[in-house]
Amino acid sequence: MTFQTLFAASANHIYIGNTLWYLIVFVILLLLVKHYAWGPVSDMMEKRRQKVINDLDAAADNRKKAEVLANEREAALKNSRQEATQIISEAKVSAQKTSSQIVADANKNATSIHEKAKADAAQAKADALDEARSQVADLSVAIAEKVIAKNLSATDQKDLVDQFIKGLNK
């Protein structure tokens, strides 16, 4: 066997020397890629991984904050509903008190007016009776004067009564 046949491949005539050369060039290229490309690519991938992790953490934090805000908003809404219900209840109670006070004042005024009307009617009646008594007294005095001034006969009495009736119509 010759040296040449030892280093030659059987079918394609590839020599081991070429294979070693290709292998050495491949290793050198691999080292160059690792040194110049793999490091920056790895750094870029690590930065990307960290950015994704940070974004996921920020999203989780934002979600928690949103949940807290939603809970606070819900609590505030419930509180506002309770306050509104309380305000409405207080307004109803106040309206009922005011209504009761207005009705009581109206009843008091109506009673006062009724009592005053009664008093006025009683006073008017008393005044009318006093006036009637005064007139009756005046008429009695007038009749007595006429009776004393004359001795009355039957015709005189009739004339006196007629004059009295005419005096009443005036």
TrEMBL record:
Which GO molecular function annotation, any one, does this entry have? proton-transporting ATPase activity, rotational mechanism
Q: How does it sit in the membrane?
A: Single-pass membrane protein
> Which cellular components does GO assign to this protein?
endomembrane system; plasma membrane; proton-transporting ATP synthase complex
Q: Mostly located where?
A: membrane
Cell division as a keyword? no
Pfam families found in the cross-reference section: ATP-synt_B
Output the InterPro entries linked to this UniProt entry.
ATP_synth_B-like_membr_sf, ATP_synth_b/b'su_bac/chlpt, ATP_synth_F0_bsu_bac, ATP_synthase_B_chain
Q: Which SUPFAM superfamilies does the entry link to? A: F1F0 ATP synthase subunit B, membrane domain
Q: Where are the transmembrane segments?
A: 20-39
Please provide the record's keywords in A-Z order.
ATP synthesis, Cell membrane, CF(0), Hydrogen ion transport, Hydrolase, Ion transport, Membrane, Transmembrane, Transmembrane helix, Transport
Provide the protein's localization. Cell membrane; Endomembrane system
Quaternary state and interactors = F-type ATPases have 2 components, F(1) - the catalytic core - and F(0) - the membrane proton channel. F(1) has five subunits: alpha(3), beta(3), gamma(1), delta(1), epsilon(1). F(0) has three main subunits: a(1), b(2) and c(10-14). The alpha and beta chains form an alternating ring which encloses part of the gamma chain. F(1) is attached to F(0) by a central stalk formed by the gamma and epsilon chains, while a peripheral stalk is formed by the delta and b chains.
The text of the family note is:
Belongs to the ATPase B chain family.
Function of this protein?
F(1)F(0) ATP synthase produces ATP from ADP in the presence of a proton or sodium gradient. F-type ATPases consist of two structural domains, F(1) containing the extramembraneous catalytic core and F(0) containing the membrane proton channel, linked together by a central stalk and a peripheral stalk. During catalysis, ATP synthesis in the catalytic domain of F(1) is coupled via a rotary mechanism of the central stalk subunits to proton translocation.
Which HAMAP family does this entry report, sorted A to Z? ATP_synth_b_bprime (MF_01398)
Q: What is this protein called?
A: ATP synthase subunit b
Q: What is the lineage of its organism?
A: Bacteria, Bacillati, Bacillota, Bacilli, Lactobacillales
